[in-house]
Amino acid sequence: MSSVMKISSRNLPALRRRSLVKGGMAGILASGLAPTFAYAQPKKLVMAHLNALPESAAIAFDWQAQEVRKRSNGELDMQFFGSTLLNKELEIMNAVKSGNIAIGNPGGAAATVFPEMGVFLVPYLVQSYDQAYKMFNGKIGDTLDKQFQDKYKLKTLCFFDYGFRHFWTSKKPIVEPRDLRGAKIRVQQAKVFGDTINGLGGNAVPMAWGEVISAAKSGVIDGGDLPIVNQIALKIYEVSKFCSMTFHNYGPTLNTMNLAVWEGLSEPHKKLMLDTSREAQAKCRELTESVDNLAAAKKELEPKGMTVVQGNVEAFRKVAQEKIWPAYKAQYAALWDDIANFKA
């Protein structure tokens, strides 16, 4: 380890200066002016996340930050900030890209930041959690990671999700496709979400999340769609009466690191970040899946005033295959068959 001696001899008597020069280190030690050593400082890795604890991904990544600090013996100082540092998905990703922070994710706006992710959002194309995680933790995920490094200068630490989307509405439940007729449903600002709602029979209203609650209260929208874990975390029961379990969009996202920061890590530290990211991914998955079924959703949401119903998934899937799939199959030809034919 290199050292820096911080000694000034300008104010020392001439005789003492000569003794230090002649005596070298022995003279320095004898003088009581022992050198101070500049030790390597911990490498700070700031992570911004859209939501605060106890949201599922926030729990997982807060845990990861603690583990990284512990397992690196303090050499990596990963700091997790949930809903306090930056409060918009695109702001977080721009900060990661610019290197202003080290780590972040686009939350539910993955397809906006990474258009390549849009194919996974096509309604009913991804059919199970097992299928999704085996794809993302295998060859398909590796291919996307390389693309994102080359194109966006971002390293993928892990893919994760908030689960399948279900309708939340204020006037009536959405059990059959016909129940969507005339309904104004808020969607995120990515084309695939609008195409999903319009294709299934509703009227899509693209809207940033910050406007949703007031729009629901004023009747500008009749509802929206969110995974169960987010309906709980975002307290959607305050503006919604019904949750309809339709499983219509699978919503993957990914946690990323600025590529230059990643490349500046040692190999052991890279391995630590990937190992703990995969463990955090498993925590996200367990927390998400544990509430993504009719019985669990009822237990979580009905005491808060919502009515939870089972949608006719097969009827919705048939409409999606007929009206939505053809255009996306042509658009995502390179990946479509890999996903559609992937066996969990």
Structure description:
- The chain has 344 residues and is of the alpha/beta class.
- α2 links the parallel β1 and β2.
- The N terminus is likely disordered.
- It is built from 15 helices and 11 strands.
Q: What about the largest sheet?
A: 5 strands, mixed
Low-confidence stretches: 1-38
Instruction: Label the overall shape.
Output: globular
| Quaternary structure annotation | single chain
Give the topology string: H per helix, E per strand.
HEHEHEHHHEEEHEHEHEEHHHEHHH
How many helix segments?
Answer: 15
Please name the defining characteristics of this protein.
344 residues, alpha/beta, D-Maltodextrin-Binding Protein, domain 2, 5-stranded mixed sheet, 15 helices, 45% helix, globular
Briefly summarize what is shown.
This protein is α/β, with parallel strands linked by helices and 344 residues long. It has 15 helices and eleven strands.
Topology:
Elements: H1 14-31, E1 43-49, H2 56-71, E2 76-82, H3 89-98, E3 103-104, H4 110-113, H5 129-136, H6 139-152, E4 154-164, E5 166-169, E6 184-187, H7 191-200, E7 203-206, H8 212-218, E8 223-226, H9 228-233, E9 242-245, E10 250-258, H10 259-263, H11 267-289, H12 294-301, E11 307-310, H13 313-323, H14 325-331, H15 333-340
Parallel strand pairs: 1-2, 1-3, 6-7, 9-11
Antiparallel strand pairs: 3-10, 4-10, 5-8, 5-9
Helix pairs in contact: 2-11, 14-15
